[in-house]
Amino acid sequence: AKENGRGVARVFEAHMGMEREARRLLEQDLKQALAGSEFELHYQPLVALEDERIIGVEALVRWRHPSRGLVPPNDFIPLAEETGLILPIGEWVLRTACRQGMQWPGLTVAVNLSPVQFKHRDLVAMVGEILEETGLRPERLELEITEGVLMHDGAAARDTLTRLKALGVRIAMDDFGTGYSSLGYLNSFPFDKIKIDKSFISDLSAEKSNAIVRSVIGLGQSLDMVTIAEGVETAEQASFLRREGCQQVQGYHFGRPVPVAQLTELVATVVRP
Ligand code: C2E
Ligand code: CA
Ligand code: CA
Ligand code: CA
């Protein structure tokens, strides 16, 4: 039994070693990506349900890796957060989204903020500087944050949110419903928008999900917050959401995330003044 135990331990160590090595390589690669400008933003339309017009876009980061092709954010954001590389990456995302957003007058630009960025002291100053530098009107910038941001230090988070709002930017609660005490958070933080997570939308044929989505929309209405549903893939889902009074939608049914040039084309053909 003793030998057996050692064997297991050795295999485990070898496995950990490989994992460490793989992570080290990925971290090195990420640093190179930053230096070599291998990141790019794709933009997905946010659509008003009322008239199906594009009213904004969400910036979603991708990594154009020289050999691995287009790498999705879920494959590198977690390590970027662990290593702190999310700070320079996140700053690049914000600056690029604000600059590129200037090409689409009248559209809001939504940018995802990592909890790691959020805890960083200079966040508010950075946002202010980037707005000034790019000339994007603050009302056109929407910062998407998740519950993770609020969980650890509620007082500090409220202070940061208040100072961000004082700049004039909007704040959206992302992935709503996937965490623990979302309801309490809605009450005590100054959100402008609730984003209903796509897991509830893909499940809309189930009675329970219908009830949840319906009550989140009602909650948004009574708290005077805009509600947006993400991951809308079918006309049926869209008409359910319209019927229930959801104001905005985002999803493959209305448009996938696309590179800048394609979004510009889309905006030119479908957005009327
Ligand atoms: P998220 O903020 O919840 O973004 C929505 C995700 O759902 C995006 O995946 C989008 O492409 C995908 N999506 C949109 N419509 C549909 C649909 O109809 N069906 C389905 N199945 N999926 C849809 P993506 O681009 O792979 O991003 C994944 C996550 O990575 C994002 O989730 C966000 O948490 C994170 N992320 C993306 N860009 C950034 C960034 O610049 N900074 C940070 N910190 N995180 C980012
Ligand atoms: Ca988001
Ligand atoms: Ca989500
Ligand atoms: Ca998310």
TrEMBL record:
This is EAL domain-containing protein. The chain holds residues 581 to 853 of 859 of the full protein. Residues 23-271 form the EAL domain. It comes from Plantimonas leprariae.
